[in-house]
Amino acid sequence: MGILTSFVQMALVLFSTTPYFLWIIAVLGVAAAFLFRRGAETDHIRSPEAGITEKSKPPQVTDDPDAPVSVNYFPSRECNYACGFCFHTNTSGYILPLDDAKRGLRLLKEAGMRKLNIAGGEPFLHPKFLGELLRYCKEVLDLESVSIVSNGSKIQEKFLREHGRHLDILAISCDSFVRETNRAIGRGENGQADGDHVAQVFRIAEWCREYGIMFKLNTVVNIHNWDEDMTEQIAELAPFRWKVFQCLIVEGENEGETRVRDAREFLISEEQWKTFCDRHKHLPCYVPEDNQTMAGSYLLLDERLRFLDKGDGPMKKSDSLLDVGVKKAMQQVAWDKGAFDKRGGVYEWRKPQTVGENGGCSGGNKKELEW
Prior knowledge:
alpha/beta, TIM Barrel, 2 domains, globular, Radical S-adenosyl methionine domain-containing protein 2, rSAM_sf, membrane, transmembrane helix
């Protein structure tokens, strides 16, 4: 008690002999130091986006019935393949700065986007950009589903191991399991099939099962593959969805000799389309889309975040949503929401906890596959 009493007496003497303004300065200094320390402790969670923190709540979502629920984003037109029917050809090497891309995706989330599909071009030509988009979409925007469409050639197991937790669906384009057919289509490095494309597809399917990613296949039915029976290979790959598209002409992209691609020589008749569909329709993962179903039912964004109208007639582009906002940009193109709903544009697109078990075309719970 004696020591405590002496300490109190000394403190009172010091207080009585020290000018009041010095005490005020001392108190303010302590307060400033405390606030600075609090700021330093939270600075590390700030993202590069203006005013956005990594741990902030995701943006509020609109309940607009015409909201852009599912968006297909082509961040780059660059591709290492030369598929003859491609309708989004390599006419520019431009890619948005990452922060601008994130800002655009946040605007889409605020407008009602629930699923983002990243396609191209070939997205895996820009792996760092792609990986950061995946992380941002899941950790910051909290999107229900994020998917990628790829030709598969540049995918490495390391990428899926590091980013698989942020990826719901990986779709691989595979139009044939015959080397000569792939060569005729142009599906290979610089258009030359090297025989490894099919082997790579099987490797990726296995990686997806290992890292908890839903594996999907996309096939374009054209003059070179319409009579191929893919039943055995599809069953072995066991994708949860197999999207089968009829070869499509898009005016302004792939319909003439002056274009990068001329898909007219790849077109098939309705009878040929029906023959391919009838051969594979028994597979539970089979999801066909003819030209009429595709036209106008997809929301497409180019490398400058402009909506693309690839329906009837010449292709049209909106202003960039970064300049005019999502709603105004959408009003500048035609999007058939009814056709989107009719083709099953919304499905169970978030990966389950145990993806890869009892699923896919090879069997399993069929009810789970009817997404």
